[in-house]
Design goal:
The protein is built from eight helices and four strands; from the N terminus they run H-H-E-E-E-H-E-H-H-H-H-H. With 175 residues, it is of the alpha+beta class. It has two domains: 130 residues, Arc Repressor Mutant, subunit A (Orthogonal Bundle); 42 residues. It has a four-stranded mixed beta sheet with strand order 1-3-2-4. Strand 2 and strand 3 form a beta hairpin. The longest helix is centred in the middle third of the chain and has 20 residues. The protein binds zinc ion. The site of zinc ion has 5 residues, from helix 3 and helix 5.
């Protein structure tokens, strides 16, 4: 069951990601670096040996800065998306009035159903991540010239599957 009220719509995700990119990054500079954005939000980002079935985690203890853990062995592009996704979780909670006196203990498993699309917060985090790394306006702009999906994914430093998914969501056809 999807709790529509708390689900970030594509438009909301885009607006939120634009706001974050404008505030903590140069909105005209690509690829977007989620590490810089995370650090600007006082989030510690660490590469660690996580269990094979774990992609990433967002942890926060009371009175301490949040920590995002990434799987050390994952390819760079996957880590970038996972980090953007974890930032999405953090920002989603902050937007909903999560306070500093509340703990966060969130682990993202690979291939779990919730990541695919039944959990409101997971869908919202994915939408945020895609919007942060592949802003709609920039994708549309690039697709006006002859750029294929491989060049696009290189430009945004995302996997080709993430790029294809994004193009589908935006209903943009690229050559
Ligand atoms: Zn997640």
């Amino acid at each position: 069951m999807i709790d529509v009220e708390n689900l970030l719509t594509h438009e909301q995700a885009e607006l939120l990601a634009n706001k974050i990119r404008k505030t903590y990054w140069d909105e005209n500079k690509f690829p977007v670096d989620p590490v810089t954005i995370g650090r600007a939000l006082s989030i510690r980002i660490v590469d660690v040996q996580l269990p094979e079935n774990v992609a990433g985690a967002l942890l926060k203890k009371i009175g301490e800065d949040p920590v995002i853990m990434l799987h050390a062995d994952d390819p760079v592009n996957r880590k970038r998306f996972t980090l953007a996704h974890e930032l999405g979780h953090y920002i989603y909670r902050m937007e909903r009035g999560h306070f500093d006196d509340q703990e966060i203990d969130h682990v993202d498993h690979r291939n779990q159903d919730s990541r695919k699309g039944s959990d409101v917060e997971e869908i919202s985090a994915n939408r945020f991540a895609a919007s942060l790394l592949m802003p709609q306006d920039q994708v549309k702009l690039l697709c006006k010239s002859t750029v294929d999906v491989f060049e696009l994914s290189k430009f945004f430093e995302v996997s080709t599957s993430a790029m294809k998914y994004r193009l589908n969501t935006l209903e943009i056809k690229c050559p």
